[in-house]
Amino acid sequence: MVVRVATVAFEGIEARPVDVQVQIANGNVVFTVVGLGDKAVTESRERVRAALNASGLAMPAKRVTVNLAPADLPKEGSHYDLPIALGIMAAIGAIPRQLYRSRRTRA
Question: Rounded to two decimals, what is the model's pTM?
Answer without folding.
Answer: 0.89
